[in-house]
């Protein structure tokens, strides 16, 4: 829990420690569901990489000539234990991991709106395997904390960073609901692919505002429906076969959420329709993907008959 010393005094350190220890004790149980990911992470930690490059589209951790063929087979086997890989691409000792999402495209869209990350304290909420955290290292942040309650994604990041050894990156088994413990802690918060899973999105945005330092920035990316009216879809059960989806906003609706939550200087800087060129099945994610979520007879609709998804990108600021 090295990150605590880098947070300001406004953090509720005692409560963070208690929650961290509770979650640590939970995940350290010798149960099959935890060992399934913990053991591969421990095996991969035996292979620290000499060459790490997070500046390009593919996060490179180690080159092929750093390990022999036997080690590469073992590394591949342990990396595959974290399937399905949702975010990427990665290259680990020459092993190319083609994830479901072409996450490098999303990062490219973010670049024009990114604030200065140099020496900043940053939170990536719902960080998954940490692809975007690794990409942030090119900006030389002081600290990036990944909030990730999923055991699979938590250990996947731990495995990757045990090999990459990026000292500015850390992760904890926390969720967006723990942000009130981090009052005025972060210069930048990333919230990508999360807000539509929250039953009260404006309250979530207010919690993030509390966690931002004065003048801090929120970078938000969300699934959306097309349209110019400030409305949100509330699906009956699933949206594009995904359970746990509450409100799917239009871009203008998302902007209004930020306004009502108290943000200023709000900018919807990118929006685009989703497609199977960006989210698809691969060798590393062999389950259903975008093509399976869309009506085969009408590509403008999901299988449930709702408008097919777009992605929207918004930046907002906390008043200085």
**Rg, Å, rounded:** 19 Å
The description of the largest β-sheet is: 7 strands, mixed
Estimate the helix proportion, in percent: 25-40%
Query: Major sheet: order of its strands?
Result: 7-6-5-8-9-13-12
User: What general outline do the C-alpha atoms trace?
Assistant: globular
Order of secondary-structure elements? HHEEHEEHEHEHEEHEEEHEHE
What class do helices, strands and sheet pairing give?
alpha/beta
Oligomer: single chain
Question: How large is the count of helical segments?
Answer: 9
- The CA-CA distance between the termini, in Å, is 29 Å
Question: What features would you describe in this structure?
Answer:
It is a single chain. Helix content is 29%, strand content 21%. The protein is built from 9 helices and 13 strands. It has helices at 13-27, 32-44, 69-80, 103-110, 131-136, 151-164, 201-211, 251-261, 290-293; strands at residues 52-53, 59-61, 90-92, 95-97, 121-125, 143-147, 169-172, 186-192, 212-224, 232-233, 248-249, 264-273, 310-317. The protein has a 7-stranded mixed beta sheet with strand order 7-6-5-8-9-13-12, sandwiched between helices. The longest helix is centred in the N-terminal third of the chain and has 15 residues, at 13-27. The mean pLDDT is 97.
Quick structural summary:
It contains 9 helices and 13 strands. It is of the alpha/beta class. It has a 7-stranded mixed beta sheet with strand order 7-6-5-8-9-13-12, with helices on both faces.
């Amino acid at each position: 829990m090295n990150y605590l010393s880098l947070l300001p005094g406004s953090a509720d350190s005692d409560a963070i420690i208690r929650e961290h220890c509770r979650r640590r004790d939970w995940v350290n149980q010798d149960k099959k569901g935890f060992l399934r990911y913990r053991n591969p992470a421990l095996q991969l930690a035996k292979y620290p990489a000499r060459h790490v490059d997070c500046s390009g589209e593919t996060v490179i951790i180690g080159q092929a000539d750093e390990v022999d063929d036997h080690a590469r087979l073992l590394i591949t086997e342990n990396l595959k234990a974290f399937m399905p890989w949702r975010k990427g691409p990665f290259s680990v000792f020459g092993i190319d991991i083609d994830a479901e999402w072409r996450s490098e495209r999303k990062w490219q869209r973010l670049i024009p709106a990114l604030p200065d990350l140099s020496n900043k304290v940053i939170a990536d909420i719902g960080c998954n395997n940490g692809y975007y955290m690794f990409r942030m290292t090119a900006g030389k942040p002081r600290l990036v904390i990944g909030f990730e309650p999923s055991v699979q994604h938590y250990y996947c990041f731990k495995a990757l960073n045990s090999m990459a050894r990026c000292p500015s990156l850390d992760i904890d088994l926390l969720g967006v609901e723990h942000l009130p413990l981090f009052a005025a802690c972060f210069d930048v918060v990333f919230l990508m692919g999360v807000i539509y899973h929250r039953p009260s999105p404006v309250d979530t945005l207010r919690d993030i505002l509390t966690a931002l330092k004065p003048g801090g920035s929120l970078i938000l990316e969300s699934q959306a429906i097309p349209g110019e009216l400030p409305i949100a879809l509330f699906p009956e059960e699933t949206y594009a076969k995904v359970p746990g989806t509450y409100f799917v906003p239009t871009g203008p609706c998302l902007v209004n959420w930020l306004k009502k939550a108290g943000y200023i200087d709000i900018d919807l800087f990118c929006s685009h329709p989703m497609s199977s060129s960006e989210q698809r099945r691969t060798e590393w994610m062999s389950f259903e993907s975008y093509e399976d979520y869309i009506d085969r007879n009408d590509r403008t609709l999901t299988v449930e008959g709702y408008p097919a998804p777009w992605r929207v990108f918004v930046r907002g600021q906390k008043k200085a």
